[in-house]
Amino acid sequence: MGFSFFASRAAARFLEDVRRPAGVSTAALLLTAASGGGIVAYADSSRPEDASGPPQQDVPRKKKVVVLGTGWGGTSFLKNLDCSRYDVKVISPRNYFAFTPLLPSVTCGTVEARSIVEPIRRMFEKKNKDVAYYEAECFKIDATKKAVHCRSAVGTNLDGNGDFEVDYDYLVVALGATVNTFNTPGVMEHCHFLKEVEDAQKIRKSVLDCFEKASLPNISEEEKRKILHFVVIGGGPTGVEFTAELHDFLVEDLVKIYPAIQDFVKITIIQSGEHILNTFDERIAAFAETKFQRDGIEVNTGFRVLKVSDDFITVKNKSTGGEILVPYGMAIWSAGIGTRPVIMDFMNQVGQAKRRALATNEWLRVRETDGVYAIGDCSSISQRKIMEDISTIFKVADKDNSGTLTLKEISDILEDICIRYPQVELYMKSMHMLDIADLIASGVGDSHKESMVVDIEEFKKALCHVDSQVKTVPATAQVAAQQGYYLADCFNKMDHCKEHPEGPLRLSGSGGDHHNFRPFRYKHLGQFAPLGGEQAAAELPGDWVSMGHSTQWLWYSVYASKQVSWRTRVLVVSDWTRRFIFGRDSSRI
């Protein structure tokens, strides 16, 4: 009753203060006072045509940005994107980000699975980002209608299925890659893979299953040797890291609780190339092979897997051509990455059939598309060759239209050339050239560098070998993260750079104006290879190679610092500490 009294008094004061302006039609004043409270509402039934005041302006619609994938590329893009500028939607069947370099550690319990994952929604909430997330899988990209078709695994619509469609203005494809079996028979049916957290958990259970099965009283010694033979197919970083983790798990933990069968355990690496870790420095590859042989790990290089059955792996010696049957208890396939079906379908749409990854330009935009960008393992940057634009470059540099170039004219656009064509700097470095004069002199001779003048043919001759240094970026987490950060920065500056371009001169086509952005440039920060026994190898910038126990501690510090949140950082470090004190858990959960 008290509330009604005060509400009525307030309403009375409101009515006393209201004055209807001249020329305004009758207004409706509505006063409602209920026993439990009072509500006052005033509504003007019409607005005079000559009423003063600025008209309301329509708020411009935000551009729709759809991100496919929550891996390294997609997460890096979302973390650095100014989401207030766009209407952002994220679509992925995985509602978390996984720190994939630690997946080998998850396979053996060195690190728990939940310690290396961070929920995507939690990442958005912590950074106050207005982002919509849909847990679904994209199965078709329609570049013509600028829409993606998705299928939810957690719910259905009124039609009885989980299909829905999301349109976009800009699409960022960061779907990663899948395993590549090279159509080897039996691989999909009999081998484990190591691409997802679920794969690591399956491997952990299978390892323990092998030991429990070999411990049964009705198993012969021959069967025990077969069951406890672990074969890793692929000697790249993933295969080597898993082999090292498995060896530590066996030696430090399992042989202590399975003493009766420890003599039957064997680990074998099968590598098609001549060396394992062939993407690393030769010194690291030799160190890894020597250490594995010393640890009792059999390293078979120069062998190609022909077929995998339930009991045997058929391999072929590439040097002799002979075939060998290898009995095994568990096989892990880590021999390369392949293209996802949705990416293959999209490549067929945009005229990129028979490729292994989406071709993008140096600004990460998918070629022959509008508003579609691709980052990470599902894409490959097609670096434009300088010889394709050599005539335009000559024309732009020849400001006086003399038909020749002086050294100064070339130097004036040298920075733009090096930004647009990074192979120029790489070539000069490989040939130990100090400046552009050395490069031009290689085509016209060493005499009179200061007064050097070249025509179009001499200019072509000087640069004809530069494109031999065109490099492709590797399919690594480091590359995907840098691409995501770069693309987010471009989106954040898109409006500004349209008015104030930051990129180099356009040296293709007609040339003249500037690109809006500088092209993406990958900066290699080094790579690690844990080799077990608290030893690791590192290849760092500046041709610095480090191997041994100290490098393992460097690996610990770097991987702890690279975690995406303090929560996962604390969990990973605590898992490492727990393993040092108590060992790895051998429970089959």
UniProtKB/TrEMBL annotation:
<keyword id="KW-0521">NADP</keyword>
<dbReference type="GO" id="GO:0005743">
    <property type="term" value="C:mitochondrial inner membrane"/>
</dbReference>
<keyword id="KW-0472">Membrane</keyword>
<feature type="domain" description="EF-hand">
    <location>
        <begin position="385"/>
        <end position="420"/>
    </location>
</feature>
<keyword id="KW-0285">Flavoprotein</keyword>
<dbReference type="InterPro" id="IPR045024">
    <property type="entry name" value="NDH-2"/>
</dbReference>
<dbReference type="InterPro" id="IPR054585">
    <property type="entry name" value="NDH2-like_C"/>
</dbReference>
<dbReference type="InterPro" id="IPR018247">
    <property type="entry name" value="EF_Hand_1_Ca_BS"/>
</dbReference>
<dbReference type="Pfam" id="PF07992">
    <property type="entry name" value="Pyr_redox_2"/>
</dbReference>
<keyword id="KW-0576">Peroxisome</keyword>
<keyword id="KW-0479">Metal-binding</keyword>
<keyword id="KW-0999">Mitochondrion inner membrane</keyword>
<dbReference type="InterPro" id="IPR023753">
    <property type="entry name" value="FAD/NAD-binding_dom"/>
</dbReference>
<dbReference type="GO" id="GO:0050136">
    <property type="term" value="F:NADH dehydrogenase (quinone) (non-electrogenic) activity"/>
</dbReference>
<dbReference type="InterPro" id="IPR002048">
    <property type="entry name" value="EF_hand_dom"/>
</dbReference>
<dbReference type="GO" id="GO:0005777">
    <property type="term" value="C:peroxisome"/>
</dbReference>
<dbReference type="GO" id="GO:0005509">
    <property type="term" value="F:calcium ion binding"/>
</dbReference>
<keyword id="KW-0809">Transit peptide</keyword>
<dbReference type="InterPro" id="IPR011992">
    <property type="entry name" value="EF-hand-dom_pair"/>
</dbReference>
<keyword id="KW-0106">Calcium</keyword>
<dbReference type="Pfam" id="PF22366">
    <property type="entry name" value="NDH2_C"/>
</dbReference>
<keyword id="KW-0560">Oxidoreductase</keyword>
<protein>
    <recommendedName>
        <fullName>NADH:ubiquinone reductase (non-electrogenic)</fullName>
        <ecNumber>1.6.5.9</ecNumber>
    </recommendedName>
</protein>
<keyword id="KW-0520">NAD</keyword>
<keyword id="KW-0274">FAD</keyword>
<keyword id="KW-0496">Mitochondrion</keyword>
<dbReference type="InterPro" id="IPR036188">
    <property type="entry name" value="FAD/NAD-bd_sf"/>
</dbReference>
<comment type="similarity">
    <text>Belongs to the NADH dehydrogenase family.</text>
</comment>
